[in-house]
Specification:
Chain lengths: 112, 111
Amino acid sequence: SAVISQKPSRDICQRGTSLTIQCQVDSQVTMMFWYRQQPGQSLTLIATANQGSEATYESGFVIDKFPISRPNLTFSTLTVSNMSPEDSSIYLCSVAEGGEQYFGPGTRLTVT
Amino acid sequence: ELKVEQNPLFLSMQEGKNYTIYCNYSTTSDRLYWYRQDPGKSLESLFVLLSNGAVKQEGRLMASLDTKARLSTLHITAAVHDLSATYFCAVDGAGSYQLTFGKGTKLSVIP
């Protein structure tokens, strides 16, 4: 199974600033995804990041707020821009491999 | 729009008892997933169900899928405290691997 790491594991940021979250996979994967889990809530898909193409965003999420890069088959970044307290969440990357979908450990973001 | 409903959302049960968590979804799907999440942790994959009538078991947990009824169940047998966690079902819409999650069932097993 794919092993996924994320950096940072957690951060506390001031409103108005931006944070870039990194996701590294130990194997080459075509499909990577970014999810958000707000406090006490379920997971919501932010966007799909496939290498070689622009990320596709779900309803309610826009590129200006959550720009994504996917420079190769093992790495992706998600930036949370111009943060507000409502952005306080856990952000998780995931990959699809062999019919399964695996999740990274998550980045716990607190915006003050 | 694909919708996934789980119930119950909260479940408190005694050790040794059996219970079932239900997951209904609104449109045809290729895959149904069950995940476990411990507090402050990421998601642990439990089962992937691919076809009608699929049944998978691991320890005290058994998952099944009825695609005609658009229903999956996660059955817990003789619960133990270590099973306390939040359980999510998630549905893959049209083979895209883009998952829509249920709200989760927070399970507390009381000794």
